[in-house]
């Protein structure tokens, strides 16, 4: 009986025309003939259950005992829901992608802004560094890599400071000093690379042993003797001093005083040990002229005459022979000969310096002066002849300006020095 019932169940079919469930070969309701492959509803459900017994929707193997507990309708519902779940996941991923794209966009914008800020800082820093470098070079204090020297007019200068500068001008170039020392009539302003001597409110001496400070022509501590000769030539005075050889060049200041530029060369390596610039103490200072007549007009005349004499020797030291020749009166020019003849007499002159100037006679428009002349000349190519003379000069203002109308010299001494 059981087998018969199972057979009947297995023979059932659904009419595709009216939907009636039948057992016979023709539909009991509409008479439609059973199709060759009629759909058995129990077989369909059984197939569904059997499929779910083998694999679940995640592909995992299901035990046969557990499969008896599965509700095929729930499994079918899950199969229907699964596509919906996948659809939702797809939309979520799409939304996530859009959000990620927006985040990436903001990140890129942020990176660009940060780069822009850093580039701005970089270029601003470079400009500031260049400005600082430019200001440093304008102070006359220079780097070892590039010796930039403040533009100056005189060779009697060091580190951008000239002899004759005021304290204010010095501060403008060098800034605030680290300390000040006083000695006799001098105040010495000390800096890390240079020392400045001030006398009567003006720069009167400079000295440096630093490679950071240079002369107008670029010579500094550490430069070679050859560098010095290349820049300044061989018109110098030379003296031995312990382990140094002193090479001195004479130049005229703006007020026609004699100034000395000294290079102290180490004997051990022929390099500059230190550099100094100064106005020698023995050089003429019109305020110190000795006179027995204290009347205002005569003191003024004496100072003017002494300044004219000083201008004469300053022109010789600059090898400006025409300027020196023009300070001579007409009679003196006739006595000396032509300008060329006069200039020939000074071909070997290295320097002339005067000291101990005194007024011996003062009649107002005629002044007689006595003084000591130290003349240095080239001698035998490698030596210097230094001669000392006791001199007198008569100057007159009768033609409207001071001229030398007479001169005399008596030799006092001589010495030969090696260059």
Structure at a glance:
By secondary structure, the protein is α+β, with helices and mostly antiparallel strands.
Can you tell me about this structure?
- The chain is α+β, with helices and mostly antiparallel strands and 419 residues long.
- It has 3 domains: 2-73, no CATH class; 157-278, Pathogenesis-related Protein p14a, CATH 3.40.33; 286-418, Nuclear Transport Factor 2, Chain: A, CATH 3.10.450.50.
- The protein is 37% helix and 28% strand.
- It contains 10 helices and 16 strands.
- The chain has helices at residues 2-11, 41-54, 64-67, 72-138, 167-174, 225-232, 296-317, 321-327, 330-336, 339-344, and strands spanning 13-14, 21-22, 157-158, 161-162, 179-183, 186-190, 195-199, 202-208, 237-241, 244-252, 258-266, 272-278, 349-362, 366-379, 383-396, 403-418.
- The chain has an 8-stranded antiparallel sheet.
- β3 (157-158) and β4 (161-162) form a beta hairpin.
- The longest helix is centred in the first third of the chain and has 67 residues, at 72-138.
- It is rod-shaped and about 170 Å long.
- It starts with a helix and ends with a strand.
- Mean pLDDT is 76; it is low at 52-95, 132-149 and 282-294.
């Amino acid at each position: 009986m059981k087998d018969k019932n199972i057979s009947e169940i297995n023979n059932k079919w659904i009419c595709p025309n009216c939907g009636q469930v039948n057992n016979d070969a023709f539909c009991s309701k509409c008479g439609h003939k059973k199709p060759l492959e009629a759909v058995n509803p129990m077989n369909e459900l059984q197939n569904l259950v059997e499929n779910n017994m083998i694999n679940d929707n995640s592909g995992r193997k299901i035990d046969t005992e557990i499969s008896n507990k599965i509700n095929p309708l729930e499994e079918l519902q899950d199969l229907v829901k699964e596509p919906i779940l996948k659809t939702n996941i797809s939309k979520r991923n799409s939304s996530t992608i859009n959000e990620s794209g927006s985040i990436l966009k903001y990140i890129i914008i942020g990176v660009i802004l940060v780069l822009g800020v850093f580039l701005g800082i970089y270029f601003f820093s470079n400009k500031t560094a260049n400005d600082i470098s430019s200001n440093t070079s304008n102070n006359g204090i220079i780097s070892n890599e590039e010796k930039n020297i403040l533009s100056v007019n005189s060779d009697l200068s060091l580190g951008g400071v000239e002899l004759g500068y005021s304290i204010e001008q010095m501060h403008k170039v060098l800034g605030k000093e680290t300390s000040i020392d006083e000695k006799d009539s001098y105040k010495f302003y000390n800096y890390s690379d240079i020392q400045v001597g001030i006398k009567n409110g003006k720069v009167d001496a400079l000295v440096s042993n630093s490679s950071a400070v240079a002369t107008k022509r670029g010579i500094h501590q550490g430069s070679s003797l050859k560098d010095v000769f290349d820049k300044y030539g061989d018109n110098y005075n030379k003296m031995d001093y312990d382990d140094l050889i002193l090479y001195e060049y004479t130049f005229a200041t703006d007020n026609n005083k004699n100034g000395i530029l000294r290079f102290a060369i180490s004997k051990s390596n022929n390099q500059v040990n230190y550099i100094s610039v100064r106005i020698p103490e023995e050089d003429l200072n019109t305020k110190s002229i000795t006179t027995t007549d204290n009347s205002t007009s005569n003191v003024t005349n004496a100072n003017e005459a002494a300044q004219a004499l000083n201008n004469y020797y300053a022109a010789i030291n600059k090898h400006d022979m025409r300027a020196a020749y023009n300070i001579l009166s007409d009679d003196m020019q006739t006595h000396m000969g032509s300008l060329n003849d006069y200039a020939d007499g000074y071909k070997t002159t290295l320097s002339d310096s005067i000291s101990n100037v005194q007024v011996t006679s003062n009649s107002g428009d005629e002044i007689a002066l006595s003084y000591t002349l130290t003349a240095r000349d080239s001698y035998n190519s490698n030596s210097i002849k230094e001669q000392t003379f006791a001199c007198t000069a008569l100057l007159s203002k009768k033609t409207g300006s001071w001229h030398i109308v007479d001169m005399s010299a008596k030799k006092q001494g001589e010495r030969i020095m090696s260059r």
